[in-house]
Write a structure and sequence with these properties.
With 340 residues, this protein is α/β, with parallel strands linked by helices. The chain folds into two domains: 182 residues, Rossmann fold; 115 residues, UDP-galactose 4-epimerase, domain 1. Helices cover 40% and strands 17% of the residues. The protein is built from twelve helices and 15 strands. A seven-stranded parallel beta sheet has the order 3-2-1-4-5-7-12, with helices on both faces. It has a two-stranded parallel sheet with strand order 6-15. A two-stranded parallel ribbon has the order 8-11. Helix 1 packs across helix 6, helix 3 runs parallel beside helix 4 and helix 7 packs across helix 11. The radius of gyration is 21 Å and the shape is globular. The termini are far apart.
Length: 340
């Protein structure tokens, strides 16, 4: 069985690439050629160096090739979906699109999300683009049999990612550092909403099970852990991993979005909502699948990786200053009403 991954070395796709090769797939990676270090030591992977932005160059490099599976991990806009339909129609038996569970209805009408939950997110353009991509692929399936499988990850992480709700452009380290230093960290709302985080090793097991699976053609399916945690529990697990109890400052989501409009999509359109997933569909499609990496285990691996690799410890003084400013402003508002 022969697979082509566009990307293949990211948070989600690295573990998928590793497991696909171990499972006997002949794996080809198409990317710009600057991310191979994450798959170092993985034998048998073949590389095609190209930029998907140059459609004609990609077409020429794929001339005469056919695949059992093509998976594109870096499609974010409907124009990219249309391009891939042109490129891969007729040369693959299955095409897997990485969509997003943030595409599900916001606000939710029911806390339990199934694949029949409507796709609608007025708060986040990223999610709306993913929805339109899904519709583009499904229309191609209905019109001329394009063999699409839409896959919706939720919050998936690996050793290079520590799941955080409120952070700056430079990632999670500054928040982890604040916890280690005993400084307060911001948690949206009261921290009691439920969230689902999934380790990439677990995600890979289900994804590889979908590869070449005829029952997945024309379907949309999410892949998540069955473990649901409150945001307070998530931050406490991170604190436990660094050996420091976190000082949590609960601040309303609306206030945070007013202080930084860039948070509207990621908070109002995603993390501020309670999300619990019904994973019965992926378990039907991939018998035996279950997520086995608990968050407290997975985040300990992530923290250990950060602490062992100084290049992961990217400071973010701008976000640190913003955090202090927001906390002062919130405390000032409470002082007006003599609320402690």
């Amino acid at each position: 069985m022969k697979a082509l991954f566009i990307g293949g070395t990211g948070t989600i796709s690295t573990e998928i690439s590793k497991l696909a090769v171990k499972s006997g797939w002949e794996l080809w990676l198409l990317n710009r050629g600057n991310s191979g270090a994450r798959l170092e030591g993985l034998d048998g992977v073949k590389h095609i160096q190209a930029c998907m932005g140059n459609e004609e160059d990609v077409r020429q490099k794929l001339a005469g090739m056919e695949f059992d599976v093509v998976a594109n991990f870096v499609v974010f806009h409907p124009s990219q979906a249309e391009r891939d339909i042109r490129l891969f129609s007729g040369i693959t038996k299955q095409y897997l699109f990485i969509s997003s569970a943030s595409a599900y209805q916001k606000p939710l009408s029911d806390y339990l999300i199934t694949e029949s939950t409507p796709l609608h997110n007025p708060y986040w353009e990223y999610s709306r683009n993913k929805i339109t991509c899904e519709e583009t692929y499904i229309n191609a399936y209905r019109q001329h049999g394009f063999p699409i499988t839409n896959v919706r990850p939720s919050h998936t992480y690996d050793e290079r990612n520590i799941p955080i709700a409120v952070h700056g452009d430079k990632g999670s380290w500054q928040i982890v550092k604040r916890i280690m230093d005993g400084k307060p960290v911001i948690v949206h709302g009261d921290g009691s909403s439920l969230w689902t985080v999934t380790h990439s090793r677990d995600f890979a097991k289900a994804f590889v099970g979908l590869m070449g699976n005829v029952h997945a053609i024309g379907e949309g399916v999410h892949i998540t852990s069955d473990e649901s945690l409150t945001w307070n529990q998530i931050y406490n697990c991170i604190g436990s991993a660094v050996g420091k109890e976190p000082v949590l400052r609960h601040i309303s989501t609306d206030f945070l979005v007013k202080c930084n409009p860039d948070f509207e999509g990621g908070l109002l359109g995603d993390k501020a909502n309670t999300v619990v997933f019904d994973n019965s569909k992926i378990k039907r499609l991939v018998p035996g699948f279950t997520a086995t990496v608990s968050f407290d285990e997975g985040v300990r691996e992530s923290v250990a990786y950060y602490l062992a690799n100084p290049d992961m410890q990217t400071p973010d003084p701008e976000f640190d200053e913003w955090t202090e400013k927001v906390i002062r402003a919130y405390d000032g508002a409470l002082d007006v009403f003599n609320v402690s």
